[in-house]
Structures are given as C-alpha cells and as structure tokens.
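debug: dumping io for the single-chain case to check the tokenizer round-trip. Nothing else runs in this session.
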Amino acid sequence: MHIAFERVRLAREGFTLQADVSVEPGTSVAVIGPSGAGKSTLLSLVAGFDRPDAGRILIGGQDMARVRPADRPVTLLFQDNNLFPHLTVFQNVALGRAPNLRLDQADRAACSSVLARVDLAGHANKRPAELSGGQQSRAALARALLRAKPVLLLDEPFAALGPALRRDMLDLVAEIRAERDMTLMMVTHDPEDARRIAGQVIFVQAGHVEPPRDTAAVFNSPTPGMAAYLGI
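debug: decoded output
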C-alpha cells in the first residue's frame, strides 16, 4: 500500500520535522539516522499517534487527516513489545484479532495458526515473564501479523536481542512481508538491518527526511549526511 507524505510539517518543542516523500506499495524501507532526528516521529505520523501541523499523509491514496489510529491500515510494533503481563501469550496475541478477547472458533483458529507461524505453539498458556526476550518479540510480532494490516511499521522492536536472534527475527519479518505483500517501514540504527531486509533507505537528519534510495546505492555512494552518520 502506497504511503505519501505531502509537504508534511510537524513542530514540537523546538523540533521540526519536514517530509515530502513517498513509499511505494509492497516495498521494504529502512529509516535510518541519528538519535532524535525524527525517525520514530515519522512512523508515528503514519500510525496517527502524531498529527502534522501542515501537509497531508495519504495511505493507499486516502487522506488520513480524519482517520483514527485504530482505523488506519497500519500496525506499529515497538521495541518494548507492549505485552500485558497478566495475560497469557495466547490472549496477548488474540488482542490483535479482538480487543475485547471475545473470540469465536475462527478467531481461536487464527490465533493458533499465527502462534505456530512464529514457533510459539507450545507456549500459548504461558505469561510473558515466562518467555525469553526472543520469544516475547515473536509474540508481539504474532499479534501484529494477526491484525493483517497492509502496512507494517517497526520501531526497533528487536534492538535488545542478540545478533543471531535479531537476524532470525528480521528474516521472519522479511519472509512474512513478502508472503502478504505488505509495505514495511523499519526504524533502525544498524546498517546491517537495512542491508538484510530493506530494498530502500530513508535517511533522516535534524528533522529533514530524504527521499528513499536504493539500499546498495545509499551505502556505496552515501550523501554527505549519511557518510557523516556512518563515520565514513
């Protein structure tokens, strides 16, 4: 699903973000830049948790100005996973299907299927505290997948994982994104994340959002700002 930022401007407490870029349907885009540059704010604008002071955000050609976050065709996955400690893994995942947890047979079957997809079928009745960090990330990803939205936003959800597990999670995201032809925007500080699953890179610096560029070109011929960020 196409995402367009049309002359978007957002100002908050001395910080200004400006974006006039678009993301093509079905692409994987890594959003890279220094801390505080505006990467997470960019995703928050797509999700609807922040609203621009000027300009428009369109998803699938529809202006999102009057569309509530819950009604947008978007799922946002955060670093802290947002799992509820008092609920089981199955219940946490089921929230993606029914926020009131009133599940019919089809809902339960869908939850069981997505848990199996992320290799958590045997952990459905556990609490989040009983899971490893990687398993918690898988549970959060399962809930995001169950929402079945065409746009998936990742705000460094795997940053706390070790290198091997992090690669496994990225590969799983890439595999499922391709299967469902989702549009992916992923905030990361690690160029290797971009090289692994992103076809394009958006560089954000001091609130300025550069247009997407081919990932290989970004790292082989970086702009001055990207070169400084990478320490080249």
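debug: round-trip ok. The mean pLDDT is 90.
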